[in-house]
Amino acid sequence: MFRRRPEMIRQRMERFEGFDFGRGFGGPRGGGRDRFFKKGNLQFVILKMLKEESRHGYQIIKDLEERFKGFYSPSPGSVYPILQMLEDREFVSISKDGKKKVYSITEEGEKFLEENINNDEFTQRMEQFQNIDFEQLKASREQLHEVFQGFMKASQQALQDEELKKEFDQFVEETKARLEQFSK
Q1: Closest Cα partner for 73 from 24, 30, 9?
Q2: pLDDT tens-digit profile of 48-97?
Q3: How do residues 87-115 score in pLDDT, each as one tens digit?
């Protein structure tokens, strides 16, 4: 059997179209929301989950939704192509439980996971979410959405007047500096 080097496999996984998660509605030209996770990161979490215990695809989706307390739920259109790709790479094996396919991590999958543990930003981000009050986060998101809409209206107005534009640019720089203070 032909074996590929882990970095080659990772590069191919990242180019795989099914890893374009979280773009949301509106497509690539705007109108959609930002990606919740970077390309390719969900594969690591799925492999880690399968290392804990074998699961079927729907169970993976529900377990992720539960871990994020409903804040994020991957679509079947993102999970099932990853599972197929992981099977193609022989990182998971499939058994049947009635009509359901049950996925289990293989030795190759465990080896890949171990070799790429430092590339797993998704799990690191997921661990950050464990102690977050999601109700408060949802409320904050609503506030941020209102602020963003106000920001967009103000920026459109600023483009109409040179003095307003200078004032708006200064406001943006001051806001960025304040936000940086909060993140320290």
Answers
A1: 24
A2: 999 999 999 999 999 988 887 777 788 999 999 999 999 999 999 999 99
A3: 999 999 999 999 999 999 999 999 998 88
Q: In this structure, how many other beta carbons lie within 10 angstroms of the beta carbon of residue 50?
A: 24
- Amino acid making up residue 22: G
- Whether 1 shows a pLDDT value over 80: the answer reads no
Would the pTM of this model clear 0.90, i.e. be above it?
Answer: no
Give whole-number Cα distances, 170 to 155, 157, 164, in Å: 12, 15, 10
Contact of 62 with 69, CB cutoff 8 Å: no
User: Mind giving me the DSSP string for 87-139?
Assistant: HHTTSEEEEEETTEEEEEE-HHHHHHHHHTGGG-HHHHHHHHHTT--HHHHHH
Mean pLDDT of the chain: 78
The b-or-e profile of 15-24 (16+ CB within 10 A means b, else e) is ebebbebbee
127/7 Cα distance (integer angstroms): 25
Domains and CATH numbers, the chain: 31-131 (1.10.10.10), 136-179 (no CATH)
For residue 1, what are the contacts with CB-CB under 8 A and spacing of at least 6?
none
State mean pLDDT over 1-28.
44
